[in-house]
From TrEMBL:
PROSITE patterns in the cross-refs: TAT
Identification of the protein by name: Phosphatase PAP2 family protein
Organism: Streptomyces chartreusis
Segments forming domain Phosphatidic acid phosphatase type 2/haloperoxidase: 193-329
Keyword S-adenosyl-L-methionine among record annotations: no
Classification of source organism: Bacteria, Bacillati, Actinomycetota, Actinomycetes, Kitasatosporales
Length: 640
């Protein structure tokens, strides 16, 4: 199994000269020419000729430390525009000093504001096996996983001060027989999942070759032997310019490496390991995909809080982990393992929760925020979004993204009802814009936003047809797209399953329901175009707006809510055409239901033609009498 340590060694500038440049502004440091002359000119040439990362990831070994020879060094080439490697660990040239100044100031600000509790948390994350740390992202399934996988840790707390010596994660005394640190034991009920996590974190997933290649120092090493002067100026964050010192959490002072030349900062090994583990778990347990991604971002941030890494280090670790996870999952050699791990996790959790494939997702999200720190999606988004770019600012014009080869495998179990090409479109349309220097390296893996991608398309740039199968269960049977979908294309819903749209959508190509259920969970769920229901059911959770025409025909259903003293449930800007076989099903609002004898507006349109074959109400005590006009429909509720 891999070592619990995610940060091992690297090299990297003259600490005093770099710090003063960072603190006071001015010209970039010019020092010894870089040993690796490939930064950055040859990187562009290499990128043209290089193999795709997923086909070349096994070149990531310590013997290979140039973009010509190492796929990881190549995809991290965006950093070569910021930093030129020197001939020793403490030499180098900031090529974009404004980025590195902002980087140091951010780290100084965060460590200065660090609480005792945060220092202790950062110690636990530093010393605990990363694969174990990520398990908490499973929420209500976490303890079941630990038991089933026989996963244990000896790092459950942190001392108040500085420990006397090095501390490592081990199997604690008294642990059940066969227990293992990290993801758990291969000889367990979840052994295939544990094996998948370790495989994704395998021999070609180390951050050390890139650390040696870039030789960028950890932030705390830039403090040593430095004089700091208060200039009276404030930085972009409102902090004094002199406040450029980064303090390491007291609990970690003796956990640091002692050989500077073997202890570089970029990329962060812990961050790499945390994201690799999270994406492996997310493949096996996609019901918690977004929460596991959030967990990895949150844990990675503790590397900055600890004073052990800087923002650029953490960004680099995430970029390489995204690519490495995709490469391992796309590798044909791991095809049987990943399928077995996913099947094993589903069977185990169903058995131990009494759920089905259709109800496991609800169980996995059944706890409140007190028991599940990731139960609030909006809070998760607030955690992740600023950490996608940290101190980086956009420069230049946006460029379209070609999704890296194989990246779609990361969504394979989360969106199994989509084709590989469609999953690539999800990744493309939810990606970050170009212009963030560290994220724009070869193949631009850093632009992928897996948190957003797990919520479906970000745009319909052409027409999208999606088919869900109710009999298949899980996400194959039902899913929700929460993003605000833009674009000129439209959506066609097929199959027997259910798709829910909950974003403020602005796509213009229209919506067609041909089968199953399409749920509009927001007023603007159906975008800007026409809506046609020619099969299956269109359901509105709230008031639903159609910006074009609405047509319903054949054996179809429209399900709308009814609320007392409220406007029409369906507002149509254009005309409404109702054909033979169309059914209207009305659901009384449980909190504000209309009463018997009242007349409630249902549909408002520019013009209405035709009638529903049947109107139903989900109340045994009431029946609905339609009142049609040329511009809409109301119902009079009468007692049966």
């Amino acid at each position: 199994m891999p070592s619990p340590s995610g940060d091992l060694a690297t090299p990297t500038i003259d600490r005093r000269r770099f710090l003063l440049t960072s603190a006071g502004g001015g010209a970039a440091l010019v020092v010894v020419p870089a040993v690796a002359g490939w930064l950055p000119a040859a990187d562009a040439k290499t990128a043209v000729q290089a193999a795709a990362f997923v086909d070349d990831y096994r070149t990531n070994v310590v013997a290979n430390q140039t973009p010509e020879t190492n796929a990881v060094v190549r995809i991290l080439g965006g950093f070569a525009k910021v930093w030129k490697t020197g001939g020793a660990w403490n030499t180098g040239t900031p090529l974009m000093p404004e980025v590195l100044r902002a980087n140091m100031r951010y780290c100084a600000r965060v460590t200065a504001a660090r609480t005792d509790a945060q220092a202790k948390e950062s110690f636990i994350v530093d010393r605990q096996h990363q694969s174990y740390s990520v398990i908490a992202g499973l929420g209500p399934l976490a303890e079941l996983y630990r038991t089933g996988a026989k996963a244990v840790t000896s790092i459950t707390g942190a001392p108040d001060g500085t420990p006397a010596g090095k501390i490592s994660d081990t199997v604690p005394a008294g642990a059940p027989a066969g227990s293992a640190i990290g993801a758990g034991s291969y000889d367990s009920d979840l052994g295939q999942v544990a094996r998948l996590v370790d495989t994704v974190r395998g021999p070609f997933a180390s951050g050390n070759p890139a650390k040696f290649a870039f030789q960028y120092p950890r932030p705390w090493r830039m403090n040593e032997d430095s004089e700091v002067v208060d200039t009276g100026a404030k930085d972009a964050f409102g902090f004094p310019v002199y406040d450029s010192r980064v303090s390491v959490a007291p609990q970690l002072l003796r956990q640091r490496a002692e050989t500077p030349a073997e202890d570089g900062g970029f990329p962060s090994g812990h961050t790499n390991a945390l994201h690799l583990a999270a994406l492996a778990y997310a493949y096996a347990v996609p019901e918690r995909f977004q929460e596991l991604v959030t967990r990895a971002f949150e844990l990675s941030h503790t590397r900055i809080v600890a004073g052990m890494h800087s923002t650029v280090d953490v960004l680099g670790g995430r970029v390489m982990a995204t690519a490495l996870a995709a490469a391992a999952l796309a590798d044909p050699a791991n095809a049987e393992l990943k399928a077995a791990a996913h099947a094993q996790a589903l069977a185990y959790f169903r058995q131990h929760t009494g759920t089905t494939a259709d109800t496991l997702y609800a169980y996995a999200h059944s706890a409140g925020t007190e028991a599940d720190p990731y139960a609030d999606r909006e809070a998760n988004a607030r955690t992740v979004r600023p950490k996608l770019t940290y101190v980086l600012t956009r420069q230049g014009r946006d460029e379209p993204l070609t999704v890296p080869k194989g990246a779609e495998v990361l969504l394979e179990t989360r969106q199994p009802y989509l084709t590989a090409a469609q999953r690539r479109e999800v990744l493309r349309t939810t990606a970050l814009p170009a212009g963030y220097v560290l994220l724009d390296g070869f193949e631009q893996w850093g632009r992928l936003d897996l948190f957003s991608a797990s919520d479906g398309y970000g745009a319909f740039d052409s027409d999208v047809t999606v088919t869900l199968d109710a009999a298949a269960g899980g996400f194959d049977a039902a899913d929700t797209w929460r993003n605000d979908i833009r674009g000129e294309g439209g959506l066609t819903k097929r199959g027997t399953g259910t798709l829910t749209l909950s974003g403020h959508n602005r796509f213009h190509g229209g919506t067609v329901v041909e089968g199953g259920v399409l749920v509009g969970a927001s007023a603007n769920a159906l975008g800007q175009g026409d809506v046609r229901v020619v099969g299956g059911t269109l359901r509105a959770d709230k008031v639903l707006r159609v910006r074009g025409a609405y047509v319903q025909e054949g054996d179809t259903r429209l399900e709308l809510p009814l609320r007392r003293n409220h406007g029409p449930a369906l507002e149509v800007s254009g005309r409404v055409v109702l054909g033979r076989g169309a059914v209207l099903s009305l659901r009384l609002d449980p909190e504000h239901p209309p009463v018997a004898g009242s007349t409630v507006p249902v549909v408002e349109a520019q013009r209405l033609r035709g009638q529903f074959d049947r109107i139903e109400v989900n109340s045994p005590a009431l029946r609905a009498v339609p009142v049609y006009t040329t511009e809409g429909l109301s119902v009079r509720l009468l007692r049966r």
